[in-house]
Sequence to fold (210 residues):
Amino acid sequence: MSKKAIFAVVVALFLGIGGTVAYFYLHSVYVANTAPVVPAATQQPAGAVPAGAVPPAGNTTIPAATQTQVPAAGGVQNQPSAAGTLTDDQLVLGQISYGASIDAVRQRHGEPHEIDRDDGMTKYEYKNVFDLYVINGIVQRIKVDDLNGLATAKGIRVGSSVDDVIAAYGQPNSVLGDHMIYNSVNNPAVGLNFEIELNHVEKIECGMLH
Fold:
């Protein structure tokens, strides 16, 4: 083979190898610049609940919202025989404060079994747990009438005796039939209403009285 032929073969091989290298280099650059960007996973903060999941019931009381509670229309029907004795932190039943946000309740307990209208308010019924009476998204009354262990801030629950109630709260501000009523210091339209049957608590209402 002549020197010219050998030189031609070497040049062809060089161009072939170089062309192949150049092709793969240009292809990798194209892929790197056109591949879709995969977004980084958003880190959930500690204790966060995934969207759509219902958080478990907590051990803390759902506090009253900053929004002012809606006053009872027309005031209370009963006139207390003594000044109210309950402070705001005692207006709690089932770890829900009078004036709590219904959104906060739903975040903890999930959706109610039924929503209805009752006593001029929206009633959220959590069967065998409690009923919540709401105006403008704020809980105005909490009612418990099941033996489920849900208690007031001082531990009175359905099934407690009258003596237990008096030991916890003293003599009621008023008694109407089988109802022992304790009024708030700040608002006589608000308080605790214990319905008594056979010397034991049959039903408890906390918040707006009626």
Q: What stands out?
A: The two ends are 116 Å apart (CA to CA). Strands lie at 92-93, 96-97, 114-118, 121-126, 130-135, 138-144, 174-176, 179-183, 190-197, 200-208. Helices lie at 3-34, 102-109, 162-169.
